[in-house]
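In this section we walk through a basic example: taking a raw amino acid sequence and producing a predicted 3D structure, encoded as discrete structure tokens. The instruction is simple. Fold the sequence below.
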Amino acid sequence: MTKDRNTEDVAFIQALAELLNKNDLTELSVKREYGENDSLNVRVSKQTNVVTTSVSASPAVAAPASAPAAASGASAPAADSDPAQHPGAVTSPMVGTAYLAPEPGADAFVSVGATVREGQTLMIIEAMKTMNHIPAPRAGTVRRILVADGSAVEYGAPLMIIE
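The resulting token sequence is shown next.
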């Protein structure tokens, strides 16, 4: 590796770190190809502290989410321990900010108990000033909404459960 490319790579990594902070992201991964068998893989991340409270941000998100778990009996601990492992989990295809409604003050796209059809918009994830509609991967009933409106989501994070 030449000294010039090393300097360029350091500047590139610093730019990624600034992009991470500027857009309030927690992780960013990039692969930079220089040629055959020559590339740079960079993963920039920052640790975040998760604070759990018992205060509900939205009745549609927190209160109904516990009702199906209580009704399901013996399977409740497994579903609560890792919602991403639930067969009906809809996971985030990207890092960004989740919005449950098309605009502030509007009704949510879906609510717990709602029947959805395949392809119907469930929510929006904003990533780098782009609003990405998240479609329902299958038809079914929304059993749980696992994110709050305006919350940050990671790639692969469970967003909701559709059965």
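Looking at the output, two observations stand out. Helices lie at 3-22, 63-71, 76-81. The chain has two domains: 3-45, 63-162. In the next section we compare this with other chains.
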